[in-house]
Amino acid sequence: MSESNAEAVASAVASATEAATEAAAGGWRRATGIAGVAIGVVAAGAAAGVAIERLTVGRGMRQKARLALDSAGPYGGLRGTPGRAYADDGTELYYEVDDVDPEAESALTRRRRRLFGRKAPAPVTVVFSHGYCLNQDSWHFQRAALRGVVRTVYWDQRSHGRSGRGVAQTREDRPVTIDELGRDLKAVIDAAVPEGPIVLAGHSMGGMTVMALADAYPELVRERVVAVALVGTSSGRLGEVNFGLPVAGVNAVRRVLPGVLKALGQRAELVEKGRRATADLFAGIIKRYSFASRDVDPAVARFAERMIESTPIDVVAEYYPAFNDHDKTEALAHFAGLPVLVLAGVRDLVTPSEHSEAIADLLPDAELVLVPDAGHLVMLEHPELVTDRLADLLARAGAVPAAATVDGYGSTSSTAGPG
Prior knowledge:
- The structure is a single chain.
- By secondary structure, the chain is of the alpha/beta class.
- The protein folds into 2 domains: 3-56 and 242-297, no CATH class; 81-236 and 326-396, Alpha/Beta hydrolase fold, catalytic domain (Rossmann fold).
- Helices cover 51% and strands 11% of the residues.
- It is built from 17 helices and 8 strands.
- It has helices at residues 3-27, 35-56, 59-72, 107-116, 140-146, 167-172, 178-192, 205-216, 218-224, 247-266, 268-277, 279-290, 298-309, 313-325, 353-362, 378-381, 383-396, and strands at residues 81-86, 92-98, 125-129, 151-155, 198-203, 225-231, 340-345, 367-371.
- The protein has an 8-stranded mixed β-sheet, sandwiched between helices.
- Strand 1 and strand 2 (92-98) form a beta hairpin.
- Helix 12 packs across helix 13 (298-309).
- The termini are far apart.
- The relative contact order is 0.16.
- Mean pLDDT is 79; it is low at 1-57 and 408-419.
């Protein structure tokens, strides 16, 4: 890079960081005087990439590109048979079911039906739980590949996606707990999978939800769970994660972020305007903390961005304290003896792969898969690999025949599922 170009990049980095801080300090000053500082620290790691892009791509062009990707992107359009469950506080939890295609039903299943008639064992159902600030569509590629091959359930965690706002959070003004999410998952299972064997799959916060379910309902795991997939998740000690920031920076963020998020959540309308005004910077932050590969499909990156953007700031604030409190290490013992897949991206800055290694150490029979060139959203970044390992897990659990063909991507058609 020439000296003049280097100076231009440095200037653009400074401008991007200054612009973000000014937007925070100006538009959000009434919410909290230190919001701009905290967000600026987190944004610093992404500012360089955004600044370089600014040198060659105008703001109007970037906006047009986002609109084009939003209109043309095929991701997140798969739909199944809708259903609703209700949490113990009355929160409405939205889920969808993709049933097995009768024509693709295995010979073994058909034989069981002939032998047992209506008393034939219920099919295996795979229940997918998504991560923080995402929704059920984050499993798009795996859903496309498994569609019609095995019965699956996808649900939106409280206050995410199509589920209702957490009643306890709005009525009692209290944060979410991981234990609460475990009970929510139990409500979804009771409604969508009242009988038959279950495979539990969770990404990030969804994996923590699975652990909380096992902690609260060990008999359910013992009697009905036949396999578990834990993707990019942690059993505890998340308060030690540095998010790829310098020590001084991460310590500053840890001190102020809970208070900042709470204050911003109380001025949600003002903050959402600020998020839109600084969309380019936040897109860079989202990409940095979601993916590690340089060649991620822009439509996939935009798809992830849309999911995260759709999570209101007050919901972000309600969930944040739960992660520091999360410790479900002892609950992992309930998965001992089951087929377990533990998978993570080596370059995950949100739930580092060391946390997955720690889970695998406690489950020595688990399959540990570390993906070198992958970040936090590994199931979107390397869908074929994740789908392949998941399909192998399902075969080991008897959910699909060992000879079944599960395509890496499957169909991405938005055609609705049965019903």
